[in-house]
Amino acid sequence: MLASSVGSLVNPRKLANSFRSLQESSLSESTIRDYLRHLEDAFLIAEAKRFNVKGKAYISTPSKYYFEDIGLRNAKLNFQKQDEGHIMENIIFNELRHRGYAVDVGVVDIYEPTEHGTYQKKRVEIGFVANKGSQRYYIQSAFQMRSRQKENQELRPFLHVQDSFKKIVIVYDDIKAKRDERGIVTMGIKEFLVDEDSLAF
Asked: Which among 46, 101, 139, 140 is least buried, having the fewest CB atoms inside 10 angstroms?
């Protein structure tokens, strides 16, 4: 289940309920939490906690889990479920950690007007918040961003973060890094991986 849900939120309570209903298993939530810790201790998976960017606080559950070795993840699924977007996200997560960053999943609460004249609270996500010392980068992993709608979707969380840290979108396309009028950088995955200083663009 972890291998097939890379990049998705994992809630041990919901996992326990799924096992109970689908397999008539008596696995408890606490047992699943223990399994997750053991898999982390064995360096098979790594946890990315959710961080409220505006509130500057961690959200305890659920978290995301990424595979330390994407090849082992693919082998576990018999190389059948090749979700390129999630695999790319996993690779970016691993590379950021390799470069020494502490990596969280960013959460931004925004308030948008409704048709009734009131405001509705919505929670949007920034793929990664990468921290190292005084450095911080907000990073979105977007496999494809070829339509205006998709671009707006990926950039929307950035527009509600008011600090001055750099905001970067990494796409699959082989493109040179570019910066728009709002200071948001878009770069290709190849340039990000090959150049260790790519985030400093």
From this structure: 46
